[in-house]
């Protein structure tokens, strides 16, 4: 798994559809619900006439952590939900999840760091489950 300040990433051995299903399954196992799903491939085709490889954004929410974070700093809502993406890039299935540690630090409230670490650990497990 690759990790940056922005995302956790893995090249999955699964084909795209199976990787999306596995990501959903892993998110549920970690207590996340998928609030939104954006089919980027279909949206860009409909809006711009652009053909691209499959790419989906799953907007995932871990309700207890979201509640804690919003209670500590209501402005954190602009960073929610936690996005998980599954895409096909150069013929490979890529699964990514946002790394909440970096963005939580931007707000500058120490109590958010603990929440970011907890959610980050869960999202790492989600990405690893797809790899």
What can you tell me about this protein's structure?
The protein has helices at residues 16-29, 40-48, 63-72, 100-107, 110-130; strands at 2-3, 7-12, 33-39, 55-61, 82-89, 92-98. The chain is an alpha+beta fold. Helix 1 crosses helix 5 (110-130), helix 3 packs antiparallel against helix 5 (110-130) and helix 4 (100-107) runs antiparallel to helix 5. The chain has a single domain, classed as 2-Layer Sandwich (TATA-Binding Protein), CATH 3.30.310.70. The model has no long low-confidence stretch (mean pLDDT 95). It has a 6-stranded antiparallel β-sheet with strand order 1-2-6-5-4-3. A hairpin with a 2-residue loop joins strand 5 and strand 6.
**Which class in CATH terms?**
Alpha Beta
Q: For the largest sheet, list the strands in their spatial order.
A: 1-2-6-5-4-3
Order of helices and strands: EEHEHEHEEHH
**Number of helical stretches of at least 4 residues:** 5
Fraction of helical residues: 40-55%
Biggest β-sheet, characterized? Answer: 6 strands, antiparallel
Span of the ends, CA to CA: 8 Å
Structural class of the secondary elements? Answer: alpha+beta
| Overall tally of domains | 1
Give the strand tally: 6
Task: Give the overall form.
Answer: globular
CATH architecture: 2-Layer Sandwich
| Average pLDDT over all residues | 95
Q: What integer value in Å does the Rg equal? A: 15 Å
Strand content: 25-35%
Under CATH, the homologous superfamily reads: TT1751-like domain
Which regions are unreliable across 5 or more consecutive residues at pLDDT < 50?
none
Q: Under CATH, the topology is which?
A: TATA-Binding Protein
């Amino acid at each position: 798994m690759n990790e940056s300040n922005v995302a956790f990433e893995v090249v999955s051995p699964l084909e795209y559809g199976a990787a999306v299903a596995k990501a959903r399954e892993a998110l549920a196992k970690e207590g996340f619900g998928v609030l939104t799903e954006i089919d980027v491939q279909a949206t860009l085709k409909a809006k711009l006439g652009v053909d691209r490889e499959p790419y989906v954004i799953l907007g995932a929410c871990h309700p207890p952590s979201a509640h804690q974070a919003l209670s500590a700093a209501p402005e954190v809502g602009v960073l929610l939900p936690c996005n998980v993406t599954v895409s096909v890039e150069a013929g490979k299935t890529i699964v990514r999840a946002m790394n909440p540690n970096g963005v939580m630090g931007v707000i500058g409230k120490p109590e958010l760091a603990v929440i970011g670490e907890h959610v980050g650990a869960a999202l790492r497990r989600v990405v690893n489950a797809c790899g």
